[in-house]
Amino acid sequence: METLKTKIDSPAAVLLTNIVLAVLIFFILMSDWILSIGLMILFIAGALILDQNGIINLIFDAYNHYKHIAILSGIVLVIMLPFSLTGNNYISHIATVAVCYAIACLGLNFQMGSTDMTNFAPAAFMGLGAYSVAVCTTKFGLSPWTGMILGILITGVFGYLIGLPTLKTKGYYLSLVTMAIQIAFTQLINTIDYLGGSDGISGVTKYSIFGFKLYKKYTVFGVKLAPQIPFLVVCIFFLIICAYIAIRVYHSKQGLALNAIAQDEIAANCLGINIANQKLFAFVIGSIFCGLAGSLLVGLEGYVGPDSYDFSKSLMLICMVILGGMDNSIGIIVGAFILTIISEKLRDFADYQQLVYSLVLVIMLIIRPNGIIPRRVRKYFNTFRSSTVAKTIEAEKAQAIDFNK
Fold first, then answer.
1. Per DSSP, what are the bridge partners of residue 240?
2. What φ, ψ does residue 212 adopt, rounded to 5°?
3. CATH no., domain 89-374
4. 3-state SS of 307-325?
5. Can you give the residue ranges of every domain in the chain?
6. Could you give the CA distance from residue 153 to residue 253 in angstroms, rounded to a whole number?
7. What's phi and psi for 75, nearest 5 deg?
C-alpha cells in the first residue's frame, strides 16, 4: 500500500489523471449513445472499485499536495476540450448545457448536501434567472449581461423571502413547501401574458463581449469551430468560479455550521450556531447559483418558457446531486455531466426520460446511497494552506521538537 501511495502521490500521477479524465470526457461526448452510455457505466464502476480500495482518497490527497499542477493542467485541458469539438454543433450544445446544469447543482448542494434541506424548486430559480435575461433583452433592449446581474439579484431576494417561511419546517414538510413553490411558479408563468404565457419568450439576445459575439462560427488556425464554443468557454469560466466558491464554503466555518445543522439542529443550536441565518445563507447562495445557471442557459437556447423550468427539471437536478455525491463539489459536477449526457443522447427515447431518471435514482440509492464520489473528510491545511500558515505550522513543529529535547 505504501508503494502504491508513493506512486500516486506524485505530480506525474496528477497530470496523468487529468489527461485520462479529459480523454474519457471527449470520447463520451463524441461517441454514439450506446458507446457513450457504456463508457459512463465503466467510469462509474471503476470509480466505485477505486473508492472501495481507498485509491480515490489517495488521488484526492495527491491533488491536494500538488494542487498548483492539478489546477494549471486542469485549466489547460478544460480550455482545450471545447476546441477539440471542432464543428460539431450538437456535441457542443450538450457540453454547454451540462456546464450550466453543473452550476445549478452546485447551488442546490448548499441546501440538499450541506444542510440536508430537500429543495424541489431549483428549476424555479433557474427560471427566474432565465426570464430576467429574456425580459431585459426583448422588452427593454438591454444587454443580456444586465439581465444576468438583475437575475442574480432577483433570485437572491426570492431565495431570502422563500427561505424565511421555511425556517420553521424541515424534512417532509420542507419538501412539500418547495414542491408547492415549483408548481406555483410554473402555473404563474403560464398565466402572465407579459411573459409570453404558455408560449414563452423567444428571440432572446445572445451574449457578446465588447462586440465579440459568443454565439458565432469562428475559424481558428484553419479549424472551423461550432458556434457554441466561445459561449462554452465563458460558461466553463463561471463553473470554475462557482466550484471554487463552493469548495471554499465547504472548508470554512460556514460549511461546518451547515453540516452541524444537517446532523442535529438542537446540538447545533447548543453550540451557538444561528440556525436561521445559516439556513437563509444556504437558500440565498443556492438560489443565486441556480439563477446564474438559468441566465446562462437562456443565452444558449434563445428561448424560455414554462415547460423549460418545470417540476421535471427540478427532479433532474436533484437526481444529478444524488448521483454525483452530495456535499462533494467534484462529485456533483460529475453527476451533472453524466445525467445531462444520458438525457441528451437518449432524446430518441424522450418518452422514457423520467423512467431513466427514476431507475438511475433507485439503483444509486440501493447500491451507492452516498453517490459516485461521496463527501470527503475535510483537510484544511492541504486544500487551502497559505505560505504564512505553512511557516507558522513549521515553526510550531520546531518549537515542539526543541521542547521535547
1. none
2. -85, 110
3. 1.10.3470
4. HHHCHHHHHHHHHHHHHHC
5. 1-84, 89-374
6. 25
7. -65, -45
Per-residue pLDDT tens, the chain, 405 aa: give them.
Answer: 556 667 787 888 889 988 988 888 888 888 888 888 888 889 888 888 888 888 888 888 888 788 888 888 888 888 787 777 776 788 889 999 999 999 999 999 999 989 988 889 999 999 999 999 999 999 999 999 999 999 999 999 999 988 888 777 777 788 888 999 999 999 999 999 999 998 999 999 999 998 888 888 887 777 788 888 899 999 999 999 999 999 889 988 889 999 999 888 889 989 889 998 999 999 999 999 999 999 999 999 899 998 889 998 998 999 899 888 888 888 899 999 988 988 887 776 667 767 777 777 787 778 778 888 888 777 655 555 544 444 554 555 555 545 444
- This prediction's pTM: 0.89
**Alpha-carbon span 139 to 126, nearest angstrom:** 19
Rounded to 5 degrees, φ, ψ at 216 are -165, 150
Strands 219-220 and 223-224: antiparallel
Residues 234, 96: Cα–Cα separation, whole Å: 10
For the record, the C-alpha cell of 327 comes out as 456535499
404: buried, middle or exposed (CB in 10 Å: 19+, 13-18, 0-12)? exposed
Q: H helices of 194-352, where?
A: 229-250, 253-263, 265-270, 275-301, 311-324, 329-345
Query: For the chain, first and last CA: distance in Å?
Result: 33
